[in-house]
């Protein structure tokens, strides 16, 4: 770049609204000059250029910044500062003299200020070693700036001396105030400079260490100047408002921005430096400004800004405000002070401000105020708790009562929460903390009246929040057309109240909370939507209290429920109403609320299932409502689908709990299930399957009339499923769904572990005998049905999965327990062989092997090594051999299968035909696998081979001999694989090594010594590994030794 | 628990209560004596809208070690939770929760919760933690999707 003109041309092109195509080239060209040794000269020329545009000047300032960052030492820092300050002073003076004409230069001024700040930081950072020729100190950029800008004239040729003189010059307070008072523009620039320096300092300190010296310099110099200027300005704002209400100064924004920057800095610097930067005087004036108002005109000019500033402080660092200031704020915000009985007049401002915000529907500002007030309250939460409830304080109780009254009033703001007011939302946190604090108090510290006082207080809180969380408020939010975020916020609010209610239960107990809610729900006779919303809110809270209560062991609670006349009726009414209103034609709000109504009511109904089952009529009512409601669902839209899901889950829960009590409902259930599984039915597959499970629960417990009666119902259900399948041979989804229904039926017929069905237990032998013989031939029927389906869908993995599940149902039960799907080993093996012959191995074989594993687990005792050999050769080494060898997942499934045998009856594997011919050599090879689950399985295999407590003496002798023979190869292969394994897989190998060394200590030392050197040339690491492994017993120590070796041999840094 | 750990956890609780993403919940559990156990939290992670996970809120426990925030918390779903990067025990395998990977003491509960929500629908097949979900995700997307949707119904919102 030859001359200045060319540079200016390029800069203008760079900043042009329509940049040329070679913009990147231009950028690179300019950057090269900026970084070069001519950068400083170019910057100076650009900033001095008479006809230069703002872009050119800005680029000059930017070039100075680049030069500053290019210089890592302090070489030339003085020259750079000189150029920077010369132009900063020049531009600032231009702005002061003619602000309207030079306003556009503010961006350049700001950049030069930022450059000056960086020089200031560098000069005052501890590692600064300024060269002797430029040795100078600079403690207060703000004062230097004021002095330079207020100079009558600046001569570039004499600037070096002028600057040097001013760098160390201090300005007395009066003079400083006189200077900034002389010009609004100078004042505003000084505030801006203070803000820029301090904001840059916050950024600067986060990337540097050891800046406490710099903080010290700031504290001693800049802080004093800045607070003087800020406080002066804040006072001027107040005076200006008081003297002339209508006049608004342009400066407040600048002052508040500067104040905010200093608060942020002081918060940060408190933890990073010594000494406390006290901003109390500033806060005092801010509080005065907050309270300035003209109630006649409804004018609160600074309230919102100061409330927001104070809110930030209370939320982040409340101790920035000293006790006196906090007390004065307490009086202003609450009109009452916890510690004194004085009444504050300043609270009038708060009342008028709230009124102003409410009347003018300034809900955002109201929310800001709520955040500020509640964050303030949280500071003294523990103190409030102690003063209220303990003997620790002998405060004026009347005063505390008044204090609490204010808090309750604040919670009980008569607007719509979230949409219009935020006090109740934020106060939930306050009350929760207060309640938790109360619950954690030592009982001995209580005042005599404390329990009653607490119950009374938290009882009032419950009464305030119950209407607040009602769905009517959610309806208002929907109707207001606000976006979904407010709805989510309202849901969050309801969730927070549940936490609060749960915590308050510890204070109020069942007597004053749970029972009251139950009674209130039961005493209401809803005649309108509002009543129903009231019931819903109470049910919503009640569910939270009851969900962890075992009602079958709480007769007292069941009695309360039964005494509450319309309790169940009202809960059911919510379900009915929800289902009636769920249609899209009722509007979005009705749809959303219907979902909430059904969710609350079905959750509560499922929670009180243990109570419901004890009352025949109640149970009947519940089932009727649930059936009818389910009938109304047609999966028309998302809401409809969700409601159906909620109803189904509730029905399943009640049926599981009341399987005995619902016996008389069997015919009805069978009828409904039959109609539900028809192709024409609109209910979801999920509901069909879960409803069949419900039906299964009842059949499972239908034992009083002996196994024949149970079998009859089972046959009916199975025939329905069979008919469904036969009627739709081409409908893959329908058949799959029906088979899943079958599987659900099979699962439901597994008796619960804690079953207390005496009739069943007394008839157990009859049931065993009956299902062993299976007179209705349900097993055959099932198997034929499955085979018939699979003759068409035998390649389809989903069908293999579900049919394997059906066939294996009984395998989860012990041998003696009866089940209608108790297939013999032969039947199961035949089934599996047929599936194996026709399946697509990569998708179907895993399901087949899962069932095969269950078969081996169940019938292992009767199996011989030849049986196992047959399984291995048929399922893995027969027609699927190639697939198993080539697909790591199938390989892993095979290894896992062998492992399962090693864990139950290892002799079956050890003495099978393939043990030495296939398993040992191939599994040795698999050690080098790269897939995590294969590594996991194969290392587990070898661990089980070298150390297996289930081995018989004969197994042990055989295997020991084999391991001794294979030892060198096994160790070498494992260590090679380990060396090349991923770090996260190392633990699998170290577990194996630990087992090997524990069982073969002498041999393994030798094997390792032979195996390691060929792997890599690092004898020291090998030696260390062997030594450590040999003396190590714990898993963690072994893993560490292996990790250390692995890092070392792979040339990776060791962990410190 | 160190004072640093306690202070940080109180800070986390405060921050979470003041600002947390919608649909999520998180709160410290209670000890037997009713006091708050700040080292063990219960939380709910909603599935993202527009994903297979959307219909559920998935429960997790978050356990903070004594040397938190130097060490990351352990986040667990219920045992057997179906996801390629969740171990059979329910422990979440996520780089920001791994001390040797991307954990930084400055990571907040909100970031963890959002990170887990992201993980739900964006599993990392290179870091498998459980076999069934990983295999289905890698080889049989249809089966994977079916199981995820089924699981979402179990944890319905």
From TrEMBL, chain A:
Location, primary (coarse class): nucleus
One cellular-component annotation, GO: nucleus
Keyword set includes Chaperone: no
Subcellular location(s) of the protein: Nucleus
Cleaved signal peptide residues: none
Keyword Magnesium: no
Keywords tagged on the record: Nucleus, Transport
GO biological process terms held by the UniProt record: protein import into nucleus
Record family assignment: Belongs to the importin beta family.
Protein name (Swiss-Prot/TrEMBL): LANO_0F07514g1_1
From TrEMBL, chain B:
Pathway where it operates: Protein modification; protein sumoylation
Compartments, record wording: Nucleus
Active site: 93 (glycyl thioester intermediate)
Record GO cellular component, one term: chromosome
GO molecular function: ATP binding; SUMO transferase activity
Family: Belongs to the ubiquitin-conjugating enzyme family.
Full protein name: SUMO-conjugating enzyme UBC9
Species of provenance: Lachancea nothofagi CBS 11611
């Amino acid at each position: 770049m030859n001359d200045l003109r060319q540079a200016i041309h390029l800069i203008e092109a760079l900043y042009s609204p329509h940049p040329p195509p070679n913009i990147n080239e231009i950028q690179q060209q300019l950057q090269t000059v900026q970084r070069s040794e001519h950068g400083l000269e170019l910057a100076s020329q650009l900033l001095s250029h008479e006809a230069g545009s703002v872009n050119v000047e800005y680029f000059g300032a930017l070039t100075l910044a680049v030069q500053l960052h290019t210089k890592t030492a302090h070489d030339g820092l003085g020259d750079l500062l000189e150029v920077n300050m010369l132009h900063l002073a020049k531009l600032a003076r231009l702005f002061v003299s003619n602000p309207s004409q030079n306003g556009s230069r503010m961006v350049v001024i700001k950049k030069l200020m930022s450059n000056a700040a960086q020089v200031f930081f560098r000069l005052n950072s501890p590692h600064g070693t300024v060269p002797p020729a430029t040795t100078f100190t600079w403690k207060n950029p703000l004062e230097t700036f004021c002095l330079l800008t207020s100079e009558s004239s600046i001569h570039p040729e004499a600037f070096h001396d002028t600057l040097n003189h001013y760098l160390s010059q201090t300005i007395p307070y009066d003079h400083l105030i006189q200077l900034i008072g002389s010009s609004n523009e100078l004042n505003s620039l000084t505030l801006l400079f203070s803000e820029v320096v301090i904001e840059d300092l916050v950024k600067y300190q986060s990337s540097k260490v050891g800046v406490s010296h710099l903080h010290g310099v700031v504290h001693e110099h800049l802080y004093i100047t800045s607070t003087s200027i800020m406080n002066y300005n804040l006072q001027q704002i107040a005076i200006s408002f008081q003297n002339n209400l209508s006049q608004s100064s342009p400066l407040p924004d600048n002052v508040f921005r500067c104040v905010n920057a200093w608060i942020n800095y002081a918060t940060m610097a408190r933890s990073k430096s010594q000494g406390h930067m006290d901003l109390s005087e500033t806060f005092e004036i801010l509080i005065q400004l907050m309270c300035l108002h003209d109630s006649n005109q409804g004018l609160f000019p600074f309230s919102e800004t100061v409330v927001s500033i104070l809110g930030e402080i209370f939320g982040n660092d409340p101790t920035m405000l000293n006790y006196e200031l906090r007390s004065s704020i307490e009086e202003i915000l609450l009109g009452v002070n916890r510690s004194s009985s004085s009444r504050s007049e300043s609270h009038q401002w708060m009342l008028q401000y709230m009124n102003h915000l409410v009347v003018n529907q300034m809900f955002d500002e109201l929310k800001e105020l709520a955040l500020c007030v509640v964050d303030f309250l949280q500071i003294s939460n523990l103190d409030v708790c102690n003063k209220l409830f303990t003997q620790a304080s002998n405060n004026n109780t009347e005063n505390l009562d008044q204090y609490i009254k204010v808090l309750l009033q604040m919670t009980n703001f008569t607007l719509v929460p979230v949409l219009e007011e935020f006090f109740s939302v934020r106060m939930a946190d306050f009350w929760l903390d207060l309640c938790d604090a109360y619950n954690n108090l030592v009982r001995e510290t209580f005042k005599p009246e404390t329990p009653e006082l607490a119950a009374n207080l938290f009882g009032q809180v419950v009464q305030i929040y119950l209407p607040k969380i009602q769905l009517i408020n959610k309806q208002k939010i929907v109707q207001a057309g606000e976006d979904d975020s407010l709805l989510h916020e309202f849901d969050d609010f309801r969730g927070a109240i549940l936490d609060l209610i749960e915590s308050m239960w510890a204070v109020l107990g069942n007597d004053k909370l749970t029972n009251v809610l139950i009674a209130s729900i039961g005493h209401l006779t809803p005649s309108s939507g509002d009543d129903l919303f009231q019931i819903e809110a109470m049910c919503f809270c009640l569910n939270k209290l009851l969900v962890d209560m075992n009602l079958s062991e709480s007769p007292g609670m069941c009695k309360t429920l039964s005494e509450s006349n319309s309790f169940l009726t009202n809960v059911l009414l919510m379900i009915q109403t929800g289902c009636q209103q769920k249609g899209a034609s009722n509007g979005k709000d009705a749809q959303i609320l219907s979902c909430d109504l059904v969710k609350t009511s079905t959750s509560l109904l499922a929670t009180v299932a243990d109570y419901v089952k004890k009352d025949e009529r109640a149970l009947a009512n519940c089932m009727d409502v649930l059936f009818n409601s389910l009938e109304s669902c047609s999966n028309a839209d998302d809401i409809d689908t969700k409601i159906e899901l909620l109803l189904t889950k509730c029905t399943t829960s009640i049926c599981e709990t009341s399987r005995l009590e619902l016996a008389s409902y069997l015919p009805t259930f069978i009828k409904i299930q039959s109609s539900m599984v028809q192709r024409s039915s609109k209910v979801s597959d999920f509901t069909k399957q879960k409803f069949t499970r419900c039906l299964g629960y009842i059949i499972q417990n239908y034992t009083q009339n002996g196994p024949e009666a149970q079998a009859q119902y089972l046959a009916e259900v199975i025939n329905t499923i069979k008919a469904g399948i036969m009627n739709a041979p081409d409908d893959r989804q329908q058949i799959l769904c029906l088979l899943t229904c079958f599987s659900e039926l099979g699962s439901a017929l597994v008796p619960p572990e804690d079953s207390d069905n005496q009739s069943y237990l007394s008839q157990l032998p009859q049931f065993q005998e009956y299902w062993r013989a299976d007179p209705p031939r349900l097993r055959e029927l099932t198997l034929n049905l499955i085979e018939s389906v699979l003759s068409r869908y035998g390649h389809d993995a989903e069908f293999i999965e579900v049919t394997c599940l059906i066939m294996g149902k009984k395998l989860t039960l012990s041998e003696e327990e009866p089940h209608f799907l108790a297939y013999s080993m032969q039947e199961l093996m035949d089934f599996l062989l047929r599936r194996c012959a026709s399946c697509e191995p990569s998708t179907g074989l895993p399901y087949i092997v899962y069932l095969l594993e269950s078969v081996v687990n169940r019938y292992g005792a009767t199996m011989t090594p030849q049986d196992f050999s047959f399984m291995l050769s048929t399922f893995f080494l027969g027609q699927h051999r190639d697939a198993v060898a080539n697909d790591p997942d199938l390989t892993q499934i095979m290894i896992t299968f062998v492992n399962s045998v090693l864990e139950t009856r290892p002799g079956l594997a050890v003495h099978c035909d393939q043990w030495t011919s296939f398993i040992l050599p191939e599994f040795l090879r698999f050690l080098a696998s790269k897939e995590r689950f294969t590594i996991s399985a194969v290392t587990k295999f070898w661990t089980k081979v070298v150390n297996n407590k289930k081995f018989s003496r004969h197994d042990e002798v055989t295997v020991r001999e084999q391991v001794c023979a294979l030892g060198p190869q096994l160790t070498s292969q494992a260590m090679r694989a380990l060396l090349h394994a991923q770090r996260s897989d190392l633990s699998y190998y170290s577990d194996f090594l630990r087992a090997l060394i524990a069982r073969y200590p002498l041999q393994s030392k030798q094997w390792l010594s032979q195996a390691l050197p060929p792997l890599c040339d690092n004898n020291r690491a090998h030696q260390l590994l062997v030594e450590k492994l040999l003396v190590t017993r714990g898993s963690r120590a072994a893993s560490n030794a292996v990790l250390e070796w692995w890092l070392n041999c792979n040339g990776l840094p060791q962990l410190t | 628990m160190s004072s640093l750990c306690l202070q940080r956890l109180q800070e986390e609780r405060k921050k979470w209560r003041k600002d947390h993403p919608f649909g999520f919940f998180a709160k410290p559990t209670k000890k037997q004596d009713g006091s708050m156990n700040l080292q063990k939290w219960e939380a709910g992670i909603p599935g993202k809208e527009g994903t297979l996970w959307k219909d559920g809120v998935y429960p997790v426990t978050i356990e903070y070690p004594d040397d938190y925030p130097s060490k990351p918390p352990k986040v667990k779903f219920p045992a057997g939770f179906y996801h390629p990067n969740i171990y059979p025990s329910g422990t979440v395998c996520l780089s920001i929760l791994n001390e040797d990977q991307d954990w930084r003491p400055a990571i907040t509960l909100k970031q963890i919760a959002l990170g887990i929500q992201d993980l739900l629908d964006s599993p990392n097949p290179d870091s498998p933690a459980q076999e069934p979900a990983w295999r289905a995700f890698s080889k049989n997307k249809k089966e994977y999707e079916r199981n995820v949707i089924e699981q979402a119904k179990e944890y319905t919102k």
